Amino acid sequence: MTTRKTAASRRSTPTHVYQLLVSLEEIEPKIWRRLWVPDNLSLAKLDRVIQAAMGWTNSHLHEFAIDGRRYGIVNPEWDPELDLLEDKRFRVGDVLGTRVHDFLYTYDFGDGWSHSVKVEHILVAKEPINTWPICLAGANACPPEDVGGIGGYMDFLQAMRDPTHEEHEAMWQWSGGPFDPNGFDVNAANRAIRQLK
Q: pTM of the entire structure?
């Protein structure tokens, strides 16, 4: 009986907080976010926190590759091998523990946005300070959704920077106006995280 109470209370009250450094791979200058996430957060919710902090819009599928296992949204039609584990059933603390130091997060399999995630620290959870997901810092803007992966993003930036580029007007209209690749607002990132349900 005590074991059940302990397990249940662990789900509702975090004991530790993971400081994660999330970096979009293969783009320079680096696009990164530093997050605090409580150990009782499900991997499905971690997906949403990463997306909110980065600037993604949850328009595509995702996957975590952690310690030789894959986690995401399970659907036998998409993954006939059935080796993908349902991310909503696993909590950050249970999956990472103290031995996982880095893992991969992929968003949008078409564009193929790969994020390296490094566990920088494991902190003690303190109720008024760090028991909810927080973005502490970051740098550079997230690429627009559906821009076409890394190559498409580089083409987009080139067209946006050069008013004489043949695609400048089309890209300007498609993106809704100017785009600052160096832009990042930690307050906006945290507003987006707080709006998650």
A: 0.90
